[in-house]
Amino acid sequence: MPECEEHVLDSLLADADGLLAELEGARLPGAAPAALAAGRDLREAELRLLDELQSPTTDSHVEIVVAEDGMRVRMHLDPPTGERSPIDVDAVLQQLAERGVITGVDGKVIRDAVLKCNTERVPVHDVVAARGVKPVDEVSASIAIVEEVREPRREEPEDGPVDFKELSPFVTVKEGTILARVSPKRPGVMGSTVRGTAVAYGKATVASPKPGRNTRWEGSAVVAACQGVVRIAEGSFWVEEVLEVPGNVDFSVGNIDFPGDVIIRGEILDGFRIRAGRSLYCQKSIDASEITTGGDLVTAQGIIGRRQAVIRSGGGIKARFIENCVVEAAGSIRVQTSVMNSSLHTLGSLELGDRGILVGSVVEAQDGVNTAQIGSARSPRTEIRCGIDYTVDRRLARLRDQNIALAVRLRQIEEKQKRDPGSAASLTPLAERIRATIHRLNDAARDIIPQLDRNEDARVSIRGTVFPGTLIEICRVSFVVSKAMSFVTFRLDRKDGRIVSGRYGQRAPASRARSGSSAQDGDRHAAAVIPTRDVGPSRRRAGPRPG
């Protein structure tokens, strides 16, 4: 084509393009509505075709994954796009059956997952559509420790604060208490995969704790062969007849109530209560509050009482010193250095060491006292009573107190009867009951009075000095020391009914002892010899009274 003709054609095409652009942007006058609607439909069809070309439609997709061990089936669901058909539940179930999944199919989970995928048009993956049945292993017979023995019981009060002293870490048991029971053998159960294949069960062996010492079998249970504390360690359990505390008795241990022997490697702190069915041994000092033992009480250090500290021992007591305590013992009390401001009561004897000092205290010792010194120049009065059973003395005192109280009430009734004769008839039966009770109390007192004096041979021996003001009483016969005396022994002269003294270590004569012949035999002029038969507790006492 010649160059001039080509130029004319290009110009014509450009003019046509401009005209078309103007026609597209402007509404032509007189255009028919039908023609415009046809144009819009054509435009929408073109847009739909363009969308389909950019985002093609897809069918829904279901993927089934069976685990290698056949115990689980996971399902992944993808929703359709466009106008494609949604996922069909029956088709999913059919697909599971075609994969051999016949056991443990969860229809509800499948339906919920399909519904969510279809309605929300979101993928739903990792749905567990089926589960196999796991086998249950066979378990051998075993011994299981009961929970009450394994853990201490913690009883919290309904009202008020918790007393942490009562939260003991120890579990104490009585003889015959069940410690453990035998769990019988549990048979195994076969399992199954989702395809119905059987899965064999295994055999499990449970490690059983072995019963140790002081235990025995009773049927299918292990019980305690004695009373004591339960110990569990190293695959075994047993009962200790001895409770050993490695440290102090404090809030980490709490109060102790144990039926056997108790060994404490540390101290007993103030405010804690100990009850031992047998003996108590403490390697360090005792800040006594309330201690009760069925046997001996031994401490390598001393016993210090605070407030109303009381110690009761069913055996003997051995300590380095005793201060500010009420001490009661069925056996002898042995103290190495001193007894100060205390009240001691024993059915045995009180023995102090080579330099032992007894100061400001009340002592009731059935078999006598042996010490280096009694009292001091400025100390409170010391009172020593020997030869009697202090438990009988207390029973007599209680009988006397009850008798006095009833006598006072009887006198009040009799006075009222005199003032108001009209009340005599109604008060007479009560008065007769009181008189009868007083009579029974007097009879009981007469019966136990012979049990009061137990040892007329009791001695009070002083290797050093006994200071003035000291009261010495043997079988209710009293003697008050009026001046300092040294290396002296006091005893009861049965025939004359008085206290006589002799040189310390000197053997008493078989017959009536001679009193007052020398300064060593006694001081008959300066010391008062006071025989008495008063069995009540009205005699003045020094130091704290027993609890």
Short description:
By secondary structure, the protein is an alpha/beta fold. It is built from 7 helices and 38 strands.
| Uncertain parts | 510-547
- How many separate structural domains? 5
- Head-to-tail CA distance between termini: 142 Å
**How much helical structure, as a percent, in the residues?**
10-25%
Mean pLDDT: 80
Radius of gyration based on Cα positions = 51 Å
Overall 3D geometry? elongated
Number of helices: 7
Total strand segments: 38
How much strand content do the residues show? 25-35%
Largest sheet: 23 strands, mixed
Structural class comes to alpha/beta
Topology at a glance:
Blueprint: H1 3-25, H2 33-54, E1 61-66, E2 72-78, H3 89-98, H4 107-120, E3 124-131, E4 138-139, E5 142-145, H5 147-150, E6 172-173, E7 178-183, E8 191-192, E9 198-199, E10 203-204, E11 210-211, E12 215-218, E13 221-224, E14 228-233, E15 236-240, E16 242-245, E17 256-258, E18 261-264, E19 273-276, E20 280-282, E21 286-293, E22 297-299, E23 303-313, E24 317-323, E25 326-329, E26 333-340, E27 343-346, E28 350-352, E29 357-359, E30 362-365, E31 368-374, E32 383-386, H6 390-419, H7 424-448, E33 459-466, E34 471-474, E35 477-480, E36 485-493, E37 498-503, E38 528-531
Parallel strand pairs: 4-10, 11-15, 16-18, 17-19, 18-20, 19-21, 20-22, 21-23, 22-24, 23-24, 23-25, 24-26, 25-27, 26-28, 26-29, 27-30, 28-31, 29-31, 30-32, 31-33, 32-34
Antiparallel strand pairs: 1-2, 2-3, 5-7, 6-14, 7-13, 8-9, 12-13, 14-15, 33-36, 34-35, 35-38, 36-37
From the structure above, extract its key features.
single chain, 547 residues, alpha/beta, 5 domains, 23-stranded mixed sheet, 4-stranded antiparallel sheet, 33% strand, disordered C terminus
